[in-house]
Amino acid sequence: PLLPLTLYNKYKGLCEPLLLKHTNKNFEGVIFRPATVCGYSPRMRFDLSVNILTNFAYNKKFINVYGGNQLRPNLHILDYCDAVIRIINAPKNKIENKIFNVGQQNMSILNIAKLVKKIISYKIKQNIKIYKSKSNDKRSYHINSDKIYKELNFKPKRNIEDAVIEISK
Question: How far apart, in Å, are the Cα atoms of 117 and each of 63, 100, 124, 140, 148?
């Protein structure tokens, strides 16, 4: 079930049944909800948790963590692409009017920061510091992707570690 924490999430969720209402014999509908995407791309987004923490660790030699207990589901960008291809090529009866979560690692922001610190500290042979601050941001997301694993046999092949290494090349 959807439990939206923001207006963005609320209205995104309200759109799903409206979209599925318009499917017919000429238009197959499927909805997939990707986790927070991470990893290198030609047009990097540095407003996403893994990417921004890696950027700070590598370039500033420190990481600011606001709160830290908030959970974020993650998905490597290449796995996102693989999921889209899997959905496009899936038989109609396997995807029509279905909703799939697509993600892999549900981790707290603090644990992501610790993982980034470990990888970048080793890579640059310098200790990365993590600074924690309080935060009023209570947004915490956890997704279950079992359905896409079971119904479309899709499992991500990459992880946060892979994303951090690619971004820091």
Answer: 8, 32, 10, 22, 31
